[in-house]
Amino acid sequence: MTPIDGKLPLVTSLLLALLAATPIAACGGASSPAAAVTVTSTTAPASLSLRDEAGKDESLSERASRAPLTVLLFFSSDCPVQKAHDARIRELVDAYGPRGVAFSAVVSEVGADVAAERAAAKQRGLGVPVLEDKDAALADALDVEYSTHAVVLDRERRVLYTGGIDSDRTHLSPKSSRWLANALDEALAGKPVSRAKTEPLGCPLRKH
After folding, report:
1. What is the pLDDT of residues 28-53, one digit of tens each?
2. What is the DSSP letter of 9?
């Protein structure tokens, strides 16, 4: 288009300005940023505390801050579903503990003999500390109603995953859906957790 008096027509000037303001991707396509980890709408309360095996109360905020991911496994030693999952819990601890994931079993049942629960977990070789959730305060805050319910937290106590360990009940199958393992793999890779909530398949907790 021929300039008039040394000036470009108004329409051409506007088009050039628009093109200059529009980012152009580099050849081969721009790489997309790493996806943020998908979280549920829940953040575990910072002030809630769990009692460890030495009798010390530690806030959930302190506990979660020490590891990139924290897995809370709500535990009832006499539950058949819990017993069936002993081997799978050991597998998870062995596979993800070295990758920085902190596992703890949590006893939330009112009137539970916590010392006996700890002894059972040790005898069964679960390899996790057993923490006392007094008055089921944490279980209530996280809407946990069943043993074997697993909750995955990040350092800020955001719930990345909540639900069952897998799709099995009392008989483990190699074809089961490994819900917790899949969530940990995705979260550790910085990917969205594709299934952040599933149905826990354990025994009802006697909380109140």
Report:
1. 333 322 333 555 668 999 989 999 99
2. -
